[in-house]
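Reading is simple: each integer encodes one residue's backbone shape. An example follows:

___
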Amino acid sequence: MSKLDTKPITDGDPWLEPNLPAIVARYDQFAKWKGDILASEGGYDAFSKGYTKFGLNVAQDGTIVYREWAPNAQTANLIGDFNGWDRGAHAMKKDQFGVWELSIPPVNGQPAIPHDSKIKISMTIPGGERIERIPAWIKRVTQDLSVSPVYDARFWNPPAEQVYHRKHPRPPKPQNPRIYEAHVGISAPDSRVGQYKEFTQNILPRIRDLGYNTIQLMAIQEHAYYASFGYQVTSFFAASSRYGSPDDLKELIDVAHSMGITVLLDVVHSHACKNVLDGLNLFDGTDHLYFHEGAKGRHELWDSRLFNYGHHEVLRFLLSNLRFYMEEYGFDGFRFDGVTSMMYLHHGIGTGFSGGYHEYFGDQVDLEGVIYLMLANDMLHELYPDILSIAEDVSGMPLLCRPVSEGGVGFDYRLSMAIPDMWIKLLKEKSDDEWDLGNIIFTLTNRRWQEKSVAYAESHDQALVGDKTLAFWLMDKEMYTNMSDLSPMTPVIDRGMALHKLIRLLVHALGGEAYLNFEGNEFGHPEWLDFPREGNGNSFHYARRQWNIVDDPLLRYRFLNEFDKAMNHTEDKFKWLSSPPAYVSLKHEGDKVVVFERAGLVFVFNLHPTQSFADYRIGVDVPGKYKVVLSSDEKRFGGYDRIALDAEYFTTPLEWNGRRNWTQVYIPTRTAMVLAKAD
């Protein structure tokens, strides 16, 4: 392993200089782990293919080989439908590392275990107790709630003619990710769990037409409780059977690729469900197999188990899990959930981050968790140079999105979690004329130098019951009564639709190097998201997306949808997300006007609730003739066509607001316009 190149680390951030020893020490520990993996396993490539060794694998001649790490077990047997659940049959042998192995020869040239039949591993532990578990590396589990909430493990080995084979190459890595965060199960319009095939047929075309080039799929890894939104994972290698078969998911991803869409998995390596019968908890009867034992291995708020990232076999399991979804399903990258919990011993519980660097490099940092993330990102970028990895981190950890070779954690992007919080707080607590433009602009532009971020006005968090979407905060109950185009435009709906568009464009253009939207929010979905649970009578009514309302030509939701589409397609043409950060030339608190330039475009926002401005002078750095390329006030977006799309704006070579030229524009109340050079 080469030594850390310390030069680029502190570039642009003098606060990092005193923490250089901690950064170098962290890198040295990473380098030691990487060296150990190279020495003992041959490197990342072999180490991360653990799923070809562990679990159940079928050789070409039909022999089934099963391996499981369970050092505390004294005996182990594979049981299932295939052997009448005989606990004395098919005994396994343990090696010196605590790995049990069994080889089952074929019968008449066919695997001895039938495809899709049920299996378990049966073990005895010290003291003579017999325990039975779902194999840790199992690739398929199913749940029959009419019988029991406990999952059944399935031997997944479909006939060759039923296996889906990818037809399309991965699309190039997007330099300007426009991310559509989606959940397959809630994507159906009726009250049930949506299916992979339905998502492929009905939702992918919508995402493509809206101009999103990336999908972030939630709740794919199998999870015990539907209402957990996928964040209580029981079987890490099993794609959720709620939505269909593994091959249906492969088809979904392949069809997305045919549309040029990158597909990310919302991966949960921050914790695991504490279920024993169908999870990893107490797998071999001990508290400490995959997890830390005792309190260190438990998350107080999530009521779940925490991985021991400092153990060789746990690293094999987790790194192989990432590789499996890349290879087996064709995912193009990951959004890592709960990264803050992984990087700090306090897991972010009851902790507010002040930005002091002692919080990022002090004794509250969980070095094992940080180094696991460094190894994961280093492995992924080494094996897949076009990988896309995103961190969900609320702490603002420096170097999170710098390469590991620079002492960074290696992510490509971080989620800008302060932005949606700001908008919700504003809409809850302030009237429009009290908005502090300085604070809004600061929050949108406050990101670490040369570390990319994903900006979003709202994600699934804001859509959940107990919170409200931006549309709901803006329009509330009038969404049920006044969204018909045949009814008069009320002040509440007028304001709500205008600000819904302005907030999104402001975040999209100013907030980061990528943009994210949660499905349905683009058109102001009128209801919250609430999964079936005891508290709502196990109803699916709010666990769906009402596509009918955006498709109805008489409802105003279509206007918001059209603006979202236009916004994305305008970005695709001018590429502001992949351009350097914007230069903000004006944030006028009295006029509520914001002006900034990015990617050669001039963005003008009038957030004033009542005032329109004629001949409003704005600064423009590059001289020439400008024309409108996007206006939130177009009729097709539910506006009033007060901004002439054919107007030409000529610059005057006199300095204004720190820019070398100025021009004058008409900006009606609560509108935004985007100007591009036309000469």
